[in-house]
Structure formats: C-alpha cells, structure tokens
Write a structure and sequence with these properties.
- The complex is a heterodimer of chains A (123) and B (741).
- With 123 residues, chain A is mostly helical.
- Chain A has seven helices and no strands.
- Chain A has two domains: 1-73, no CATH class; 75-123, Orthogonal Bundle (Hypothetical Protein Yqey, Chain: A, domain1), CATH 1.10.1510.
- Chain B is of the alpha/beta class.
- Chain B has 27 helices and 20 strands.
- In chain B, the strands form five sheets. Chain B has a seven-stranded mixed sheet, with helices on both faces.
- The chains are: A mainly alpha (123), B alpha/beta (741).
- Chains A and B meet through helix 1, helix 2, helix 3, helix 4 and helix 5 of A and helix 2, helix 5, helix 10, helix 12 and helix 21 of B.
Chain lengths: 123, 741
C-alpha cells in the first residue's frame, strides 16, 4: 500500500487518456484551453492499479468492479447508458442481452463486463 | 374516565406523535429473524454454491443467484459456516480477535447466518463491534444541502458552511428534476470555497446522475438503491446486475459510488415475502458487496420511522449498520430522515452510531433548517449544530463536525454566494443579484429568499448540460472572475478522478485534496490504547466551541472601579445592643465589586444598611479575611456583634443571617442562591436581621426557588468563589470597614 494514494505517492506514474502528465493538469492549462474535460479522465491502467490495491486489501468484489471499470474507461458514454438500460428489468429479451455482451466483448474488448451481462441474462 | 393532569400533560409531549405498532411478522413488520425466515445453511459443490439458506439452486430467485455467484466466497464458506453463530458473535466483541480475522469469516457466511449472529448481540455489544469493524479509522460525516426554492446562492452558501463545519461529503437533490445541473454546480462551487475539499453529489434518476458525474459536476453517487426481494428490486427498476454495471460505469470515470439500502423498504413496498427486515437487509448488503460497491448508506434511511415503530427497531437499525461494516463496506449510517418528534429519542438513537463511530455518522446531516430539506431529512439540522458540537466535546467523540464561529461562517457564505454569482454571469445564466447574495448570507431558510426566474434558470440548466457544459467551464469562469482559489480547489478534486484514489473503500477528500480511506487509514482498533483516539489538534478544535471562553477572562475587566470599602483597623467585639454586623467576604467591595447578578457591592451594602436602620438598629461593616465560606463569614461576624446577630455575605452575593451561639453551618436564614437575590431581597434581609436583634418575631424573607439557577450560574459561581478564596488571609483578623464615598 506504499504507493497509495497514487496522486500523492507517485503522481509521476499517472497519465490522462490523452497521454498528459498528471502534474501538467494546472489551472493555467485549463484556463488557456490546453486541458479539457477529456483530460480529467482515468486511464484503464490507473483503474487496474487501484484494483490491485483493493485486491491486496482483500476486497475481491471491489477489485473486480474496478477491473470492469478499466474495461469501460474508453467505452463511449452513450453505449454505457445503452448497456445499463438493457440490463434494467423487463427491458430486453435474453437474446438482446447476449448481443450486448457480444458487442462489449468484440468491439470494446470488455470480457468481464460481457460476462456480467451474460450472467444477468441467466447464463 | 378518572381525570389526571399528569396524563394530560404527557399526552401533549412530542413522543406521543410518533407511531408505534406491535409486530406482524407475516407482512415483514418485524426486525429480527422470525418464523418466516430460513434457517442458515450452505451447500458447495465443485466450488459452486448449490444451496443457500435451505433453498436449492433450482429455486433461487434473482437475489439468491446473484449472492451465490458474487457475494459469498465458496472457499471460505465451509470453514465459516461450520462455526457456531455464538462463537462468531463473541469474536465481534473480543478485542483479541482482529478486524481482518472477522472480515475473513464474513466472506463465507450466508445472509441468514449473519443475521443469526448479530441478533445474539445486545446494543452495547453491537456498538463495541461497530467500533472495531468500521472500515476507516477516523469517522467523518456527510451533509444534505437543498432548499425549497432551489436558490443557487443559498445552495452555495450552505455548501460552503457545511464544509467549513467539517462535513466531508455534500449531497444535494432537486424538487424539479431539471434543476439538477444548477444545484450540482452551486454545491460544487460552495464545497470548495472555504477550507475545501469535499466530494459532492446530486441525487437524481440514475441516468441523469451519471450524466452530471461525467460532466464533473458531481464527484460521487450514492442513490444506487438495492432491495432485499426480487419484486421490490424490480419495482425500483433495477436488478443486481444493472446496479453492478452502473457501479463499474461510475468507476470508469473516476467517480465514487456508494449504494443505498435499509430495513423496512420491502415491507413498505408490500414485497417482504414475510421475511424479517434484517434478513432482507442482509441480502441487500450481500448484493451490494457482490456488485463491487465500496460502500453503502444504510440504517433504514427514508424508511426509518417504520422500524422505529416496532419493538427492537432501533437496535435492529444498529444491527444493519453493523452488518455493512462486517461485510467490509464503507458505512454512511443513516441518521438523516425524520425519525421521531422526540428530541430525547432522536438523540438517544444517534448515540448508537455516534459513540462507536462509523465512516459517516449521518448519511445526511441537514445543513439547513429541516423545512428546506428535500430528502425528507433533517432529523438533525443546522439549528442543532451547536448541540452536536457540544456532544463531541462532552464525550470526547469525533462526530465529524468542527465548531466554527460566526465571522468565519458568514465570510465563507458570502464568498460562495459571490462565486456562484460570478459563474452565473460568466456562463450567461439568469443574474444572481447582489441583494440575493446578501440574502443568502443572512438567511435562515429559503423563506428569506426572493423567488427567481424559474423558467430562465431551467432553460439555462438545460442549455448548459445539453451543450456539453462541465466542470472545466466552471473552473474557467471562476478563474476569470477573481475566484482562482476556488477554481484551483475544484480542479484539485477533479484531478483525483484521474488518479482513482477515492474509489477505494471509505475514501474522503480532505483540505489540500488529500485522500484518506480504509487503505491509508485502516481501522486498527484492538481495544483500549488502539484504534482512533481523539487527540491533538482535532481534539483541541472540538474543545474550542465558540461559546466557551477562557475561564481566566471571566469577570476580568470589571474591576477598574475604586474599591467600595476601605479598612479602618482591626474589628473589635461590640458591647452595644443595637450593633448588627454585616460581615463581608475577603474580596467583597475590594478585589470584587459586584455580585453574580451584577448588583454592585455598594448598592447591596446600602440596602442591607437601610433595612437595618429602618428597624432602628445600627449596621457595622466588618471584613472577614480568614474564610471565604458563607457560614464562617456569618459566624465570625456574629462573634463580634453587640446584638449577637450578623449578616454574612460573600462577594457573589450568597447571604446568611446568623446569631452568636449557633454552630458555623447552622443559621437563622440562609439565601444560598445568589442569582435569585435582588436589591429588594437585601433590604429585607437587613430588616429581618435587625428584628432578630430586637428579639421580635420574624417572617423569613421569601426565597425564590429556581432549579435552573445552579445550572445557569455554576461557572461564574465557581470563578467568583475562586477569586474570593484567593483573597483569604489565613488566620487574619477581621477588619472594620468604611464605605468610600
């Protein structure tokens, strides 16, 4: 746990999805328009690192959630909302859920999320 | 019916307005396991749970299936379920069994077994267990920030005040859903105005909630509600899988998530399936762990009055809090929705979470008067905050709140109001006027705010969120308009979304954007001498409530007057029958000048004397130096008195009439409650003393009885008496005194 919090202990390791250094997210950079909302996103790598920290603390399910989150980090919001909608009760036939799972796995390389969706569909 | 004024008076007490019912287990109106609950049990085959609490896999409902697949570790289940419930219950309160050993076992237990275990604990044992089992070492607190008029200046001011008072998380919601972006924005700005930092959220429908978070207008989400039966879950328009997916979605954008559950919701929705509230809550909590949430707010939350209507209800709610901690979840432990009309009952219930400490004692302390609370909350509100500060100080308990004075609070309220005003201007929203900011600073509630242009505000809200407006726009607007400090703090919290640090269990963001969680501040309680101890700066901060002055300063500054009395030699024994001694204390009229009520010693003496003279007797003032005790002052005076009668009076005003021959602590009349003595009383005391001297029948001076006087005056009494005692000259002879003109 010596690396936690990452923002304090090893900010040099942290990047934004656009490849920007954590330390370069400054007020000046925001005001000048250099930093946008897209820079204030977490990367799959950082999420996996947090998952590792949670797993080391014995929190398996939280770690799994963070691993699923790592898969979703680069998935567009609209598709995320569509998946959520599909999972809500009575919305979707089982076949459609399987399609959603397929799309998560194939298109977005998100096998853990796909497994969750399949499980919701009963398999 | 026989009449009774006492029963009539009790019937008018607030507790009578609370609802109470008997248990009705078949409808779920029961807290602890009853006839409708399953017996604990588990069957694991090939690493797969095929039977859960007596139900085979083929009959699993949605929740059973989710719990079996995701919430229980089959590898631990056999070992943990083999232990008797009582053995595990005892581990919870055994300081020799470490927290992580307990957590390990609870990874392998079924809902029915968990409930069986906690049911074995009484309320104090549950508190002991909670103290050991909560995830984070230091407790914190969460506040609600809402108002009926959804006024942005007031929201910002209240948010700023809440953070200044130490709240680590702020939660707002809406009356009109379309206000959500503006409300979220207002508390975001307010939250980073003063000390900063805090996480903020806006409780709205799931999809909108996610949008706000993605725009950086909120940094955590909490209202992911979970229910303990399949039908209740479906009525909530979710399944355990949809909630889990949502949890991952939030985390994927660096947003903290906490789920919500609580006893009573299933019964309220008519879907309890005849199961006890606690059994269903255990299922909720297992689904929450299985779904990968780092934490939960429970403690019945909005249903709280329902468990509280039942026997064992408040203990049951404590039990559900405990189960959350046993499952290694962050716990925000309720104490939010209105739970009782009785202040006694509310405070007593609060102690169950406040004393052991939870990750967040309240999952919504109302930072404005309860009539402005749009959550149905406000069981404790801003008007109770001084009481709350005193409770922390009384019991040396960290309830997550810090005392703050008027100037500090009003300054951050104003700055928050001005900041949100500037952002509205920069972003082209309807104007927030200077008058509106002034009103927000000074307001008691939204009743003090003028109505805004609702149509204009709503249109601006839609334009903003719909047009991709986000936290960056807010940061820029602040930086441009002279609020770079607030902009920096908002950015610092947004940056933490990049690191993901506050995704860990029980994370809070403290001033300086420091993340503290169960990872870097894990609860290490192992009995006395371990765990969180309220010490150092935090304890000093809690001690320093604004209404507690340094006692050394009390009564100082009033002593600038010249002494009333001047010594005129050693006092002798008088032989004159008309002589009535007024024996004053060592500081009377010299080091001190007034009684506890502020009556000047000069006037008090004048009244005593004129009372004596009115009866034709002659007063003589003598200063007793050897004692500060009222009885001994009078006693010493009587030894010198020609008539044998003396009045003894201490500087604080306590007075006695006595006669030579009576023992020091006996007397003719005693007036022990100086705060009740007026100048008129002193005149009457002088008159009575003179009549005793003349041997006439005397009607005692009526003494007022006020049981609150000691409560109100005990501190000044102590301090004045300390000053009197400081003037004592051991063995010093009494002095004749003259009144300076």
């Amino acid at each position: 746990m010596s690396q936690y919090p990452l923002s304090e202990k090893c900010p040099g390791d942290l990047r934004t999805p656009s490849g920007r250094q954590f330390a370069s997210i400054t007020l000046e950079a925001v005001v000048s328009g250099e930093v946008t909302m897209d820079d204030l996103r977490i990367t799959p790598e950082s999420l996996r690192r947090q998952a590792g920290i949670a797993a080391d603390a014995g929190r398996r399910q939280l770690a799994d959630n963070l691993l699923r989150a790592a898969e979703l980090a680069s998935v567009p919001e609209d598709f995320i909302l569509a998946v959520y909608e599909a999972l809500r009760p009575g919305r979707t036939a089982r076949e459609r859920l399987l399609e959603v799972a397929e799309e998560l796995e194939r298109k977005y390389n998100a096998p853990l999320c796909a497994a969750l969706v399949r499980e919701a569909g009963g398999s | 019916m026989e009449s009774s004024k006492r029963f009539d008076a009790r019937a008018a007490r607030p507790i009578q307005r609370d609802s109470f019912i008997e248990e009705w287990p078949e409808t779920g109106l029961r807290l602890f396991p009853g006839p409708g609950d399953p017996a604990p049990g588990i069957v694991v085959r090939d690493g797969r749970i095929v039977e859960l609490d007596g139900k085979p896999e083929s009959r699993f409902d949605m929740l059973d299936r989710f719990i079996a697949l995701r919430a229980i570790d089959p590898a631990i289940a056999m070992e943990a379920m083999a232990l008797p419930a009582l053995a595990i219950a005892r581990m919870l309160v055994d300081i020799h069994v470490r927290r992580d050993e307990v957590i390990h076992l609870f990874r392998g237990l079924t809902p029915a077994r968990i409930v069986e275990i906690v049911a074995l604990l009484n309320a104090v044992e549950m508190m002991m267990a909670l103290q050991k089992m909560r995830a984070r070492r230091q407790p914190f607190n969460q506040a609600h920030v809402t108002n009926r008029k959804e006024n942005p200046a007031l929201l910002a001011a209240d948010a700023a005040e809440a953070v200044e008072r130490g709240f680590a998380e702020l939660e707002t919601t809406v009356g009109v859903a379309r206000y959500a972006p503006l409300n979220a924005l207002a508390i975001l700005i307010g939250s980073q105005t003063g000390r900063g930092s805090a996480l903020t959220q806006c409780a709205v429908e799931e999809a909108l909630s996610l949008k706000l978070a993605l725009a950086g207008l909120t940094t955590y989400a909490e209202t992911l509600s979970v229910y303990g039966t399949e039908q209740a879950f479906r009525d909530g328009d979710d399944t355990p899988w949809s909630k889990s997916f949502l949890a991952a979605a939030y985390a994927s954008r660096g947003i903290k998530v906490r789920f919500t559950s609580g006893t009573g919701s299933e019964a309220l929705m008519g879907h309890s399936e005849g199961k006890s509230m606690l059994y269903l809550e255990a299922r909720c909590l297992m689904a929450i762990r299985g779904g990968g949430s780092q934490g939960v707010q429970n403690g019945s939350i909005s249903c709280i009055a329902l468990p509280e209507s039942l026997p064992d209800g408040v203990r049951g709610v404590l039990a559900e809090n405990l189960i959350a901690s046993l499952l290694d979840l962050e716990l925000a432990s309720g104490n939010d929705a209105m739970a009782s009309h009785s202040e006694i009952r509310k405070s007593a219930k609060l102690m169950l979470q406040f004393l052991p400490g939870t990750d967040f004692i309240h999952s919504g302390y109302s930072s404005m008067p309860r009539e402005d609370n749009l959550f149905g909350g406000g069981n404790f509100d801003t008007l109770d905050i001084d009481d709350y500060n005193v409770l922390q100080r009384d019991m040396r308990v960290d309830g997550g709140v810090r005392p703050a004075g008027r100037e500090e609070i009003l300054a951050v309220r104003r700055r928050a109001g001005e900041a949100v005003q500037a952002v509205f201007r920069e972003l082209g929203f309807p104007e927030i006027s200077d008058g509106e900011v002034d009103a927000a600073v000074a307001a008691l509630s939204s009743a003090d705010m003028l109505a805004r242009d609702v149509v204009g505000d709503l249109a601006a809200a839609e334009r903003f969120l719909g047009g991709g407006g986000n936290a960056i726009d807010v940061i820029r607007a602040l930086a441009k308009s002279g609020f770079a400090d607030i902009a920096e703090k908002i950015l610092a919290v947004q940056k933490l979304r990049v690191s993901g640090d506050f995704l860990q269990t029980s994370a809070v963001v403290l001033p300086g954007a420091k993340v503290v969680s169960a990872i870097n501040d894990p609860n290490d309680y192992e009995g006395p001498g371990s765990g969180y101890r309220l010490e150092g700066e935090r304890w000093e901060e809690i001690c320093a409530i604004p209404q507690a002055p340094d006692p050394r300063t009390i009564g100082v500054g009033g002593g600038v007057d010249a002494p009333v009395l001047a010594p005129a030699g050693e006092a002798g024994v008088s032989q004159e029958a008309a002589d009535v001694v007024i024996a004053v204390g060592p500081a009377f009229g010299t080091a001190l000048q007034a009684t506890i009520l502020g009556l000047s010693h000069r006037e008090v003496l004048a009244e005593l004397k004129s009372g004596i003279e009115a009866e034709g007797m002659r007063p003589r003032i003598v200063k007793v130096r050897a004692s500060s005790d009222c009885g001994f002052i009078g006693y010493s005076g009587a030894l010198l008195s020609g008539s044998s009668i003396a009045i003894g009076i201490q500087s604080k005003g306590t007075t006695v009439i006595t006669r030579r021959g009576l023992p020091p602590l006996n007397n003719l009349e005693l007036f022990p409650q100086a705060p009740n003595l007026t100048l008129e009383s002193y005149r009457a005391i002088g008159r009575n003393a003179a009549r005793y001297a003349k041997g006439e029948p005397v009607l005692p001076v009526p003494a007022q009885i006020d049981n609150m006087a000691r409560l109100r005056y005990i501190v000044p009494t102590t301090i004045l008496h300390l000053k009197e005692t400081a003037e004592v000259v051991s063995g010093g002879a009494a002095l004749e005194m003259e009144v300076n003109s």
